[in-house]
Amino acid sequence: MTEFDIVPPEAIASGDATDAYFNRTVEALEHADRNPTVVAELTASQFRSGDWKVFAGLKDTAQLLAGRDVDVYALREGQLFDGGPVMWIEGPYLEFCRLETSLLGFLSHATGMATAALEARRAAPDSLVLSFGSRHVHPSIGAMLERSALLGGFDGISNVAAGEVIGREAGGTMPHALVICFGRGNQEAAWRAFDEAVGPQVPRVALCDTYDDEIEESLRAVEAVEDLDSVRIDTTSSRRGEFRHILRELRWKLDARGHEDVGIFASGGIDPETMRELRDVADGFGVGGYVSNADPVDFALDIVEVKGEPAAKRGKLDGKKQVYRTGDGDHHIAPADRAAPDDGEPLMDVLIKDGDLLREFDLDEAAGRAQEDAERVGFAGFDSRL
To answer: What is the pTM of this model?
Structure first.
Protein backbone atom coordinates (compact mmCIF):
# COMPACT_ATOMS: atom_id res chain seq x y z
CA MET A 1 0.00 0.00 0.00
CA THR A 2 1.52 3.33 -1.07
CA GLU A 3 -1.25 5.87 -0.46
CA PHE A 4 -1.50 7.96 2.69
CA ASP A 5 -4.71 8.47 4.67
CA ILE A 6 -5.29 11.97 3.31
CA VAL A 7 -8.53 13.40 1.93
CA PRO A 8 -7.54 14.80 -1.50
CA PRO A 9 -8.10 18.47 -2.38
CA GLU A 10 -10.60 17.57 -5.09
CA ALA A 11 -12.83 15.90 -2.49
CA ILE A 12 -12.80 19.09 -0.41
CA ALA A 13 -13.56 21.27 -3.44
CA SER A 14 -16.44 19.05 -4.58
CA GLY A 15 -18.07 18.93 -1.16
CA ASP A 16 -17.41 15.24 -0.61
CA ALA A 17 -15.38 16.00 2.55
CA THR A 18 -18.64 16.42 4.41
CA ASP A 19 -20.59 14.93 7.27
CA ALA A 20 -23.00 12.35 5.90
CA TYR A 21 -26.10 14.08 7.18
CA PHE A 22 -25.50 16.93 4.76
CA ASN A 23 -25.83 14.41 1.92
CA ARG A 24 -29.17 13.35 3.41
CA THR A 25 -30.15 17.04 3.61
CA VAL A 26 -29.41 17.55 -0.09
CA GLU A 27 -31.43 14.45 -0.99
CA ALA A 28 -34.41 15.61 1.07
CA LEU A 29 -34.39 19.20 -0.23
CA GLU A 30 -34.01 18.12 -3.84
CA HIS A 31 -36.82 15.59 -3.39
CA ALA A 32 -39.03 18.38 -2.05
CA ASP A 33 -37.89 20.79 -4.78
CA ARG A 34 -36.83 23.22 -2.08
CA ASN A 35 -33.72 25.41 -2.15
CA PRO A 36 -34.39 28.65 -0.25
CA THR A 37 -32.10 31.66 -0.21
CA VAL A 38 -30.63 31.83 3.28
CA VAL A 39 -28.15 33.76 5.36
CA ALA A 40 -25.84 31.52 7.38
CA GLU A 41 -23.44 32.91 9.98
CA LEU A 42 -20.21 31.45 11.30
CA THR A 43 -19.65 32.22 14.96
CA ALA A 44 -17.54 30.99 17.85
CA SER A 45 -19.76 32.76 20.39
CA GLN A 46 -22.80 34.97 19.85
CA PHE A 47 -21.98 37.60 22.45
CA ARG A 48 -18.71 39.15 23.57
CA SER A 49 -16.69 36.58 25.47
CA GLY A 50 -13.60 38.59 26.49
CA ASP A 51 -11.51 35.79 24.99
CA TRP A 52 -9.79 37.32 21.97
CA LYS A 53 -8.93 35.12 18.98
CA VAL A 54 -7.06 35.78 15.72
CA PHE A 55 -9.18 35.13 12.64
CA ALA A 56 -7.32 32.68 10.40
CA GLY A 57 -8.07 30.08 7.74
CA LEU A 58 -9.87 32.60 5.53
CA LYS A 59 -7.74 32.04 2.42
CA ASP A 60 -8.73 28.39 2.12
CA THR A 61 -12.33 29.15 3.05
CA ALA A 62 -12.56 31.79 0.33
CA GLN A 63 -11.14 29.44 -2.28
CA LEU A 64 -13.78 26.86 -1.40
CA LEU A 65 -16.67 29.33 -1.76
CA ALA A 66 -15.42 31.25 -4.80
CA GLY A 67 -17.24 30.55 -8.04
CA ARG A 68 -20.48 29.59 -6.34
CA ASP A 69 -23.76 31.52 -6.41
CA VAL A 70 -23.20 33.22 -3.05
CA ASP A 71 -22.31 36.52 -1.46
CA VAL A 72 -19.90 36.33 1.47
CA TYR A 73 -18.93 38.94 4.04
CA ALA A 74 -16.16 38.27 6.54
CA LEU A 75 -13.64 39.76 8.90
CA ARG A 76 -10.19 40.43 7.48
CA GLU A 77 -7.52 37.80 7.90
CA GLY A 78 -5.61 38.55 11.12
CA GLN A 79 -8.49 40.52 12.68
CA LEU A 80 -9.08 39.89 16.39
CA PHE A 81 -12.57 39.05 17.61
CA ASP A 82 -14.14 37.94 20.88
CA GLY A 83 -17.67 37.10 19.82
CA GLY A 84 -20.28 37.58 17.14
CA PRO A 85 -20.05 36.44 13.53
CA VAL A 86 -16.76 36.20 11.68
CA MET A 87 -18.48 35.49 8.36
CA TRP A 88 -21.88 35.21 6.78
CA ILE A 89 -22.90 33.51 3.55
CA GLU A 90 -25.99 34.46 1.57
CA GLY A 91 -27.32 32.39 -1.30
CA PRO A 92 -29.33 29.30 -2.21
CA TYR A 93 -28.68 26.83 0.58
CA LEU A 94 -27.77 23.93 -1.69
CA GLU A 95 -24.88 26.02 -3.07
CA PHE A 96 -22.94 25.50 0.15
CA CYS A 97 -24.80 22.93 2.27
CA ARG A 98 -22.20 20.17 1.77
CA LEU A 99 -19.29 22.59 2.33
CA GLU A 100 -20.06 23.29 6.00
CA THR A 101 -17.78 20.58 7.40
CA SER A 102 -14.76 21.83 5.48
CA LEU A 103 -15.54 25.50 6.09
CA LEU A 104 -15.61 24.97 9.84
CA GLY A 105 -12.46 22.88 9.73
CA PHE A 106 -10.54 25.48 7.73
CA LEU A 107 -11.40 28.22 10.21
CA SER A 108 -11.40 26.31 13.50
CA HIS A 109 -7.95 24.75 13.34
CA ALA A 110 -6.10 27.72 11.83
CA THR A 111 -7.68 30.25 14.19
CA GLY A 112 -6.61 28.22 17.22
CA MET A 113 -3.03 27.97 15.98
CA ALA A 114 -2.76 31.62 14.92
CA THR A 115 -4.07 32.74 18.31
CA ALA A 116 -1.47 30.62 20.11
CA ALA A 117 1.22 32.04 17.84
CA LEU A 118 0.17 35.60 18.65
CA GLU A 119 0.32 34.80 22.37
CA ALA A 120 3.88 33.56 21.94
CA ARG A 121 4.90 36.48 19.73
CA ARG A 122 3.57 39.03 22.19
CA ALA A 123 5.33 37.32 25.09
CA ALA A 124 8.73 38.13 23.57
CA PRO A 125 8.14 40.99 21.13
CA ASP A 126 11.82 41.76 20.51
CA SER A 127 13.05 38.17 20.13
CA LEU A 128 13.50 35.98 17.08
CA VAL A 129 10.67 33.42 17.15
CA LEU A 130 10.64 30.41 14.84
CA SER A 131 7.99 27.76 14.24
CA PHE A 132 9.18 24.27 15.19
CA GLY A 133 5.80 22.52 15.40
CA SER A 134 5.50 20.55 12.15
CA ARG A 135 6.51 17.27 13.77
CA HIS A 136 3.44 17.41 16.01
CA VAL A 137 0.82 17.51 13.26
CA HIS A 138 -0.27 15.38 10.33
CA PRO A 139 2.03 16.34 7.44
CA SER A 140 -0.95 17.14 5.22
CA ILE A 141 -1.67 20.27 7.31
CA GLY A 142 1.94 21.44 7.63
CA ALA A 143 1.36 24.44 5.37
CA MET A 144 -1.69 25.52 7.37
CA LEU A 145 0.35 25.33 10.57
CA GLU A 146 3.24 27.37 9.20
CA ARG A 147 0.95 30.00 7.66
CA SER A 148 -0.90 30.32 10.98
CA ALA A 149 2.40 30.73 12.86
CA LEU A 150 3.51 33.49 10.50
CA LEU A 151 0.08 35.12 10.72
CA GLY A 152 0.50 35.24 14.49
CA GLY A 153 3.82 37.04 14.06
CA PHE A 154 6.52 34.37 13.95
CA ASP A 155 9.69 35.23 12.08
CA GLY A 156 10.29 31.93 10.30
CA ILE A 157 9.23 28.34 9.70
CA SER A 158 10.93 24.96 9.52
CA ASN A 159 8.80 22.83 7.16
CA VAL A 160 10.34 22.72 3.68
CA ALA A 161 7.28 21.54 1.73
CA ALA A 162 5.01 23.92 3.63
CA GLY A 163 7.30 26.78 2.72
CA GLU A 164 6.96 25.92 -0.95
CA VAL A 165 3.16 25.94 -0.62
CA ILE A 166 2.94 29.33 1.11
CA GLY A 167 5.86 30.97 -0.68
CA ARG A 168 8.27 31.18 2.25
CA GLU A 169 11.70 29.63 2.58
CA ALA A 170 12.07 27.23 5.49
CA GLY A 171 15.04 27.54 7.80
CA GLY A 172 16.91 25.32 10.23
CA THR A 173 20.37 24.22 11.25
CA MET A 174 21.12 20.92 13.01
CA PRO A 175 19.41 18.28 15.17
CA HIS A 176 20.95 16.17 17.91
CA ALA A 177 21.09 13.32 15.40
CA LEU A 178 23.86 15.09 13.46
CA VAL A 179 26.04 15.38 16.55
CA ILE A 180 25.29 11.81 17.60
CA CYS A 181 26.36 10.51 14.19
CA PHE A 182 29.87 11.79 14.94
CA GLY A 183 29.93 10.18 18.38
CA ARG A 184 30.54 11.21 21.95
CA GLY A 185 33.55 13.49 22.31
CA ASN A 186 33.48 14.45 18.63
CA GLN A 187 31.06 17.35 18.84
CA GLU A 188 33.63 19.68 17.23
CA ALA A 189 33.72 17.45 14.16
CA ALA A 190 29.95 17.70 13.81
CA TRP A 191 29.90 21.46 14.21
CA ARG A 192 32.73 21.90 11.70
CA ALA A 193 31.11 19.54 9.17
CA PHE A 194 27.94 21.61 9.34
CA ASP A 195 29.88 24.86 8.93
CA GLU A 196 31.81 23.51 5.93
CA ALA A 197 28.84 21.88 4.20
CA VAL A 198 25.92 24.31 4.30
CA GLY A 199 25.57 27.41 2.16
CA PRO A 200 26.60 30.87 3.32
CA GLN A 201 22.97 31.97 3.68
CA VAL A 202 22.41 29.46 6.50
CA PRO A 203 23.08 30.91 9.98
CA ARG A 204 25.91 29.24 11.84
CA VAL A 205 24.11 27.82 14.86
CA ALA A 206 25.62 25.04 16.97
CA LEU A 207 23.42 22.75 19.03
CA CYS A 208 25.23 22.56 22.36
CA ASP A 209 23.66 20.11 24.79
CA THR A 210 23.98 16.64 23.26
CA TYR A 211 26.45 14.87 25.56
CA ASP A 212 28.00 17.36 27.96
CA ASP A 213 27.06 20.38 30.02
CA GLU A 214 25.41 23.11 27.94
CA ILE A 215 27.95 25.74 28.91
CA GLU A 216 30.94 23.47 28.28
CA GLU A 217 29.69 22.50 24.83
CA SER A 218 28.88 26.12 23.97
CA LEU A 219 32.38 27.30 24.88
CA ARG A 220 33.82 24.49 22.78
CA ALA A 221 31.58 25.40 19.85
CA VAL A 222 32.63 29.05 19.71
CA GLU A 223 36.25 27.93 19.52
CA ALA A 224 35.56 25.25 16.90
CA VAL A 225 33.56 27.36 14.43
CA GLU A 226 34.73 30.77 13.32
CA ASP A 227 32.03 33.46 13.18
CA LEU A 228 29.43 31.35 14.98
CA ASP A 229 26.11 33.18 14.98
CA SER A 230 24.56 31.53 18.00
CA VAL A 231 24.31 28.45 20.15
CA ARG A 232 21.06 26.55 20.60
CA ILE A 233 20.12 24.98 23.91
CA ASP A 234 17.44 22.30 23.57
CA THR A 235 18.00 20.12 26.63
CA THR A 236 14.90 18.31 27.86
CA SER A 237 13.38 19.89 30.96
CA SER A 238 14.08 16.79 33.06
CA ARG A 239 17.84 17.22 32.51
CA ARG A 240 18.50 20.92 32.35
CA GLY A 241 17.79 22.21 35.84
CA GLU A 242 16.78 25.85 36.24
CA PHE A 243 16.80 27.04 32.64
CA ARG A 244 17.04 30.74 33.33
CA HIS A 245 20.08 30.28 35.55
CA ILE A 246 21.80 28.16 32.90
CA LEU A 247 21.25 30.78 30.19
CA ARG A 248 22.36 33.64 32.44
CA GLU A 249 25.55 31.77 33.27
CA LEU A 250 26.10 30.96 29.60
CA ARG A 251 25.66 34.61 28.60
CA TRP A 252 28.12 35.69 31.27
CA LYS A 253 30.78 33.20 30.23
CA LEU A 254 30.42 33.89 26.52
CA ASP A 255 30.78 37.63 27.17
CA ALA A 256 33.75 37.12 29.49
CA ARG A 257 35.58 35.34 26.69
CA GLY A 258 34.92 38.00 24.09
CA HIS A 259 31.92 36.35 22.42
CA GLU A 260 29.35 39.06 23.05
CA ASP A 261 28.17 38.74 19.44
CA VAL A 262 27.23 35.05 19.78
CA GLY A 263 23.51 34.74 20.41
CA ILE A 264 21.63 32.25 22.58
CA PHE A 265 18.64 30.41 21.08
CA ALA A 266 16.34 28.35 23.30
CA SER A 267 14.02 25.55 22.24
CA GLY A 268 12.25 22.55 23.72
CA GLY A 269 8.88 22.93 25.45
CA ILE A 270 8.84 26.70 24.99
CA ASP A 271 5.58 28.53 25.78
CA PRO A 272 4.69 32.19 26.42
CA GLU A 273 5.36 31.91 30.15
CA THR A 274 8.84 30.55 29.44
CA MET A 275 9.45 33.25 26.86
CA ARG A 276 8.55 36.05 29.27
CA GLU A 277 10.88 34.51 31.83
CA LEU A 278 13.81 34.13 29.43
CA ARG A 279 13.45 36.96 26.92
CA ASP A 280 16.15 39.07 28.57
CA VAL A 281 18.73 36.23 28.49
CA ALA A 282 17.81 34.47 25.22
CA ASP A 283 17.93 36.12 21.81
CA GLY A 284 15.47 33.76 20.17
CA PHE A 285 13.09 30.88 20.64
CA GLY A 286 11.91 27.83 18.75
CA VAL A 287 8.23 27.27 19.56
CA GLY A 288 6.61 23.98 18.61
CA GLY A 289 3.86 22.26 20.52
CA TYR A 290 2.37 25.40 22.02
CA VAL A 291 1.16 26.39 18.54
CA SER A 292 0.80 23.05 16.78
CA ASN A 293 -1.15 21.54 19.69
CA ALA A 294 -3.47 24.52 20.17
CA ASP A 295 -7.12 23.64 20.58
CA PRO A 296 -9.25 24.41 17.51
CA VAL A 297 -11.77 27.19 18.01
CA ASP A 298 -15.29 25.79 18.18
CA PHE A 299 -16.94 27.59 15.27
CA ALA A 300 -20.52 26.82 14.27
CA LEU A 301 -22.49 27.66 11.13
CA ASP A 302 -26.18 28.51 11.62
CA ILE A 303 -28.90 29.70 9.30
CA VAL A 304 -30.25 32.99 10.70
CA GLU A 305 -32.50 34.11 7.81
CA VAL A 306 -34.61 32.34 5.19
CA LYS A 307 -35.96 34.39 2.30
CA GLY A 308 -35.18 37.58 4.22
CA GLU A 309 -37.09 36.55 7.34
CA PRO A 310 -35.58 35.74 10.76
CA ALA A 311 -35.21 31.99 11.06
CA ALA A 312 -32.53 31.08 13.64
CA LYS A 313 -33.07 28.00 15.76
CA ARG A 314 -33.77 28.29 19.47
CA GLY A 315 -30.71 29.57 21.33
CA LYS A 316 -29.31 31.45 18.32
CA LEU A 317 -29.71 35.13 17.44
CA ASP A 318 -31.87 35.92 14.41
CA GLY A 319 -30.82 37.98 11.45
CA LYS A 320 -27.76 39.21 9.61
CA LYS A 321 -25.29 41.06 11.84
CA GLN A 322 -22.38 43.46 11.63
CA VAL A 323 -19.51 43.79 14.08
CA TYR A 324 -17.60 46.98 14.82
CA ARG A 325 -14.32 48.06 16.41
CA THR A 326 -14.84 51.20 18.47
CA GLY A 327 -12.18 53.68 19.43
CA ASP A 328 -11.68 52.15 22.87
CA GLY A 329 -11.01 48.73 21.34
CA ASP A 330 -14.50 47.35 22.00
CA HIS A 331 -15.91 44.63 19.73
CA HIS A 332 -19.50 45.68 19.17
CA ILE A 333 -22.13 43.33 17.69
CA ALA A 334 -25.40 44.64 16.20
CA PRO A 335 -28.05 43.80 13.58
CA ALA A 336 -26.75 44.70 10.14
CA ASP A 337 -29.68 47.06 9.46
CA ARG A 338 -29.03 49.18 12.57
CA ALA A 339 -26.95 52.33 12.64
CA ALA A 340 -23.30 51.90 13.54
CA PRO A 341 -22.24 52.87 17.08
CA ASP A 342 -20.42 56.13 17.55
CA ASP A 343 -16.85 55.87 16.20
CA GLY A 344 -17.57 52.25 15.23
CA GLU A 345 -15.52 50.81 12.35
CA PRO A 346 -17.39 47.98 10.54
CA LEU A 347 -15.26 44.83 10.39
CA MET A 348 -17.40 42.54 8.22
CA ASP A 349 -16.59 43.40 4.62
CA VAL A 350 -17.38 41.83 1.27
CA LEU A 351 -15.26 38.80 0.44
CA ILE A 352 -17.21 37.25 -2.44
CA LYS A 353 -19.90 38.91 -4.57
CA ASP A 354 -21.98 36.83 -6.98
CA GLY A 355 -19.32 34.16 -6.74
CA ASP A 356 -16.41 36.49 -7.55
CA LEU A 357 -13.57 36.59 -5.01
CA LEU A 358 -12.82 40.27 -4.34
CA ARG A 359 -9.87 40.03 -1.96
CA GLU A 360 -6.23 39.07 -2.21
CA PHE A 361 -4.43 37.42 0.69
CA ASP A 362 -1.19 39.06 1.71
CA LEU A 363 0.31 37.17 4.65
CA ASP A 364 2.55 40.03 5.78
CA GLU A 365 -0.38 42.43 5.74
CA ALA A 366 -2.50 40.00 7.77
CA ALA A 367 0.30 39.49 10.31
CA GLY A 368 0.65 43.25 10.67
CA ARG A 369 -3.08 43.57 11.17
CA ALA A 370 -2.97 41.00 13.99
CA GLN A 371 -0.22 42.92 15.79
CA GLU A 372 -1.95 46.28 15.37
CA ASP A 373 -5.29 44.91 16.50
CA ALA A 374 -3.67 43.22 19.49
CA GLU A 375 -2.41 46.61 20.65
CA ARG A 376 -5.77 48.20 20.00
CA VAL A 377 -7.84 45.72 22.00
CA GLY A 378 -5.29 45.02 24.74
CA PHE A 379 -4.73 41.40 23.78
CA ALA A 380 -4.28 39.36 26.96
CA GLY A 381 -1.35 37.41 25.55
CA PHE A 382 1.04 40.29 26.21
CA ASP A 383 1.79 42.48 29.21
CA SER A 384 4.48 45.08 28.54
CA ARG A 385 5.10 45.41 32.28
CA LEU A 386 6.46 41.86 32.54
So the answer is: 0.95
